[in-house]
Amino acid sequence: MNLMLKKKQLAQAIRTLSEGGVFAQTVGHASMRLTEDTFLMLGHTHKAFKTLDEITEDDMIVVDLDGNVLEGKYKAPGEVYIHTEVYRSRPDVGGIVHGHPKFSEIIGISGKPYLAVDHRAYQFASGVPVMDFAGQINTMELGVEVAEILGDHTAMILRGHGQVIVGDDLEEACCNAFLFEDNAEKLLVAYAIGTPQPLKESELRKKKPTSVWIYYVKKYDPRFKEVGYLF
User: Fold this and answer.
1) Strand duo 130-131 + 155-158: pairing
2) Angstrom distance (rounded) from CA 144 to CA 188
């Protein structure tokens, strides 16, 4: 395992998610699993006055499933329990994104169901549960509740707060986060003008979305010309 490369990959992912609007107002976090019981995530850099578009590999921390920082110069963010408890309950998950994009939040507070209406949104067709809690997930108990509500789905919404998106790896989780917001925007317009028609089983394109990740990185990472594509 090349830990330094993984730190650079996660830093690039965070910058890309931030500039692409998933981390609205540069607030949010992503992580990638390292081993069965450790993962990599961004440390709590707010007091260092760093915004997420400025993040580098030096800002990453290694954390265990109890939320202990094993390596790195920062404390874990308060919502580390989203990551500890989802990884604990979902051994198939290799990457997690928690962001606050606008259209997903609007769907979450509308009382209407999140439906897969875009041809690239098949991974959300099994349903998107909503947790009726708008506060920070800053305790292990709340993290357990997030993991239980997420279940075996790819995404869930925190009402008035944002979303939690997972993937087999970091790259897939990030692509899922972008596609989730894109589908939410289309769904919101469909609700405004008519009755949305969700994808039928026969219409689902069950293809991993990671082929579009380089597009997002090239478009949004402010350091792309300097560091290149790190995945």
Assistant:
1) parallel
2) 30
